[in-house]
Automatic annotation (TrEMBL):
PANTHER family xref list: TRANSDUCIN FAMILY PROTEIN / WD-40 REPEAT FAMILY PROTEIN (PTHR47232), TRANSDUCIN FAMILY PROTEIN _ WD-40 REPEAT FAMILY PROTEIN (PTHR47232:SF1)
Protein name as annotated: Putative transcription factor WD40-like family
First and last residues of every WD repeat: 194-236
Gene3D superfamilies xrefs: YVTN repeat-like/Quinoprotein amine dehydrogenase
Region annotation (Disordered) ranges: 54-105, 134-166
Keywords: WD repeat
Keyword Nucleotidyltransferase: no
Organism: Medicago truncatula (Barrel medic)
Low complexity compositional bias, start-end: 134-143
Keyword ATP-binding: no
Basic and acidic residues bias (residue ranges): 154-166
Transmembrane segments: none
Length: 517
């Protein structure tokens, strides 16, 4: 009898060991599959960049050959003038830039539109690339190769922006809450560096032209510019700029990059006649002031809570303030001139906490402490829809892939995040959130961000963790939480160029979290 018991126990132990081994090897296989898929995507992107470079080289060689032919019949000056007015595919692409956004290679072509020439005057990353095409097309030989290499570097720096603008609408709304299992994002490693700020951090923003450049702002009035190093394991400080307001020496309440990636905009307060918007040229240029302040002051009182550039063809941004106002600022023909136009001042009965723009239509979203969300049609000059919810709103973030989907942060515990479809009136698609251990109050300084594929949301917390939500998961809690800092986490942003999350915290550190999905 004892021998039988021993034999059964031995079989059970062996079975448990084998089950554990199978689980371990299943995870190992899944991880390798994810790595293989990621490597394949990287290979596809590299092949596309190679083909793009080859086609540029072929076009430039064709231009050089044409110039040599023309010079046999005319003098060199006439040939250059003809080339600038030629009907080559490159010039035709530039003229059709505003009507066709499928490619951003137009940033490095000879014919320069007024908007691009303004930016290149301010040290835009497109400046060297534009001039390189003129030079290489005349010089030929080694010059062509060197300028092509320089062009490829510029194109690589702006790869993220091209991908963002080429991305087409994808239907993600049917996937919401359809899965009972968690699709985890695996964090391989976390590294922390000092933010170099002396007071509490306030904001972080990724450069839209190259998401491995980012900026941080803090209560010390400084804006620090960073570059990711070593595939995300570290970051180097490029420069630190004093961006405190002119009169009251206020810190930036929020920051946003210009779409061309050469300037950073900061917002302050409307009290005391102080400056409301500053523009920082992050790459210092001789003879150009590092920080300038816009003269117009359309907000009448209180803090300006948010600034966001609109994802539209015309360059413009929107600000929302404690004076209940939402203001649209359009770029003018003159350099660094922006004309503000209030979209509405009376729709909200309390502070506007967050603003955003929709991709498929010129609609500005605003979320207020009055528990209301408005979608304002800029073309029609009226509110297209209103949502009233059960708690104050603190931010709004559109999905980067599904252009009908947006998220709103609220003050309701365990239901802080809400999903909405812009086509459905007064309909909430999903509500989810987290429990807070450190504090019962919900801070408007906690921010959220979508993953590049639009399936995940990261959120900061009063606790020292990053919460990650999978919108396909059918429960109303995080699909996972990552221990990220020693104190409260204000937010974490996803990079598109490499699998990395960058977080900021009240522990004055920047977190670099390498991912593998």
């Amino acid at each position: 009898m004892e021998e039988e018991d021993i034999e059964i126990t031995s079989r059970e132990e062996q079975e448990e060991a084998l089950v554990a081994l199978i689980e371990h090897r299943t995870r190992e296989v899944n991880n390798l599959r994810h790595r293989l898929a990621y490597t394949k995507n990287q290979l596809d992107d590299a092949e596309k960049r190679l083909k793009d470079s080859e086609s540029k080289l072929a076009r430039l060689r064709g231009q050089t050959t044409k110039k040599i032919t023309n010079s046999d019949d005319d003098n060199g000056t006439v040939a250059v003038k003809k080339e600038r007015r030629s009907n080559s595919p490159i010039d035709r692409n530039e003229r059709s830039y505003k009507s066709n956004k499928q490619s951003k290679t137009e940033l490095v072509i000879p014919a320069v539109t007024p908007k691009i020439s303004r930016s290149s005057g301010k040290g835009s990353v497109s400046e060297v690339a534009v001039s390189s095409v003129h030079t290489s097309s005349v010089s030929g030989g080694k010059s062509v190769k060197s300028k092509i290499d320089q062009q490829n570097v510029e194109g690589k720096d702006k790869g993220t922006k091209r991908k963002f603008e080429q991305k087409e609408h994808q239907e993600l709304i049917p996937l919401i809450r359809k899965s009972s299992s968690k699709n985890l994002v695996h964090c391989q490693s976390s590294n922390h560096i000092s933010s170099q700020h002396k007071r509490k951090l306030r904001s972080i923003a990724l450069c839209p032209a190259n998401d491995q450049l980012f900026a941080t702002s803090a209560l010390d009035g400084l804006v620090n510019f960073w570059k990711v190093q070593a595939k995300g394991s570290s970051a180097s400080l490029l420069n630190s700029t004093d961006c405190a307001s002119q009169k009251q020496r206020r810190w930036p309440e929020d920051i946003a990059w210009h779409p061309e990636g050469n300037r950073l905009f900061s917002v302050y307060t409307a009290d005391g006649g102080d400056s409301q918007i500053s523009v920082t040229n992050w790459n210092k240029i001789k003879g150009v002031e590092r920080v300038t302040f816009l003269e117009d002051k359309p907000h009448v009182k209180g803090i300006i809570n948010g600034i966001v550039f609109m994802p539209w063809e015309d360059t413009c941004f929107v600000t929302g303030g404690s004076d209940h106002a939402v203001v649209l600022w359009r770029e003018q023909d003159d350099e660094d001139k922006w004309k503000p136009r209030p979209l509405h001042r009376n729709l909200h009965s309390s502070a506007v906490m967050g603003v955003a723009g929709m991709q498929q239509k010129q609609i500005v979203l605003s979320a207020g402490a009055d528990r209301r969300i408005f979608g304002f049609d800029v073309g029609a000059g009226r509110a297209e829809f209103t949502h009233q919810i059960d708690s104050k709103c603190m931010s709004v973030v559109p999905n980067p892939v599904d252009f009908n989907l947006f998220m709103v942060q609220t003050g309701t515990h365990e239901k802080q995040l809400r999903l909405f479809d812009i086509r459905l009136r007064r309909t909430e698609l999903h509500a989810f959130g987290w429990k807070q251990e450190s504090s019962e109050s919900q801070s408007a300084l906690i921010n959220q961000a979508w993953s590049p594929d639009g399936l995940y949301i990261t959120s900061g917390s009063a606790d020292p963790v990053i919460h990650i939500f999978d919108i396909r998961y059918n429960l109303n809690r995080p699909s996972q939480s990552i221990k990220a800092h020693q104190k409260r986490v204000f937010g974490a942003l996803w990079l598109q160029s490499i699998p990395l999350l960058i977080s900021i915290s009240s522990d004055l550190n920047i977190g670099l979290h390498t991912l593998m999905k």
